[in-house]
């Protein structure tokens, strides 16, 4: 049995009223607690979580991971947070408070940089490559011409992809934090941004204008999530 003080996120120490609201959030087994200390930092935790029991089955592990993210999202609905990885735990409250005290300056700087911002995901879908028209003749001049035309069409398509992708990348101001993520399925690319509400509206408008100028491309926005990809060095 490996029971720990399970940690969901770090945050600025809340007011007494806000602390009551946050501690109404249901965790993995019971309502969470907000642990504070001698610094302006706090942690959203749940005591006596058995990490080994959590891994007893794939179903339980998946359900726990989902609940972990749900708790972070609920916290984020109230205040800026530094999300922690699923499975983060401390052996005791004293160890947790010592960690917060040691890292208080770093975590406060991180929270300041995240304040008022959320993570937004942009999925980019490119037009499909033109189909190669089959040639009836198995050999001869017609076949060679068709092969050459197919190759030329492919090169034109690849060049279009590169030019359009670069054009899209050039849309975003350098001051906007962003990261390229591994694309899924039919996606050409996926990019996650850290934006405030006004920047997000600007990004959506720019994306719509760009899409109108690039026939066959599709851009899909999602998010307003905690800044999972923009937090480094926490724990």
How do the helices and strands line up, and which of them pair or pack?
Blueprint: E1 3-12, H1 16-22, E2 33-36, E3 41-50, H2 51-54, H3 58-76, E4 81-83, E5 89-90, H4 93-102, H5 104-114, E6 118-125, H6 141-169, E7 178-181, E8 189-195, H7 197-213, E9 218-225
Antiparallel strand pairs: 1-3, 1-4, 1-5, 2-3, 6-8, 6-9, 7-8
Put the structure in a nutshell.
The protein has helices at residues 16-22, 51-54, 58-76, 93-102, 104-114, 141-169, 197-213; strands at residues 3-12, 33-36, 41-50, 81-83, 89-90, 118-125, 178-181, 189-195, 218-225. It is α+β, with helices and mostly antiparallel strands and 235 residues long.
Residue share in helices?
Answer: 40-55%
Q: Topology as H/E string? A: EHEEHHEEHHEHEEHE
Distance separating the two termini: 22 Å
In DSSP terms (H or I, runs of 4 or more residues), the helix count works out at 7
Residue fraction in strands: 15-25%
> How many strands appear in the DSSP assignment?
9
Note poorly predicted spans.
Answer: none
Report the C-alpha radius of gyration, rounded.
Answer: 24 Å
Described by the principal axes of the CA atoms, the overall outline is: elongated
Alpha-beta content class: alpha+beta
Largest sheet: 5 strands, antiparallel
Average pLDDT, rounded to a whole number, is 93
Note the main attributes of this structure.
235 residues, alpha+beta, 5-stranded antiparallel β-sheet, 4-stranded antiparallel β-sheet
Outline the structure in words.
The chain is α+β, with helices and mostly antiparallel strands and 235 residues long. Helix content is 41%, strand content 24%. The chain has seven helices and nine strands; from the N terminus they run βαββααββααβαββαβ. The mean pLDDT is 93.
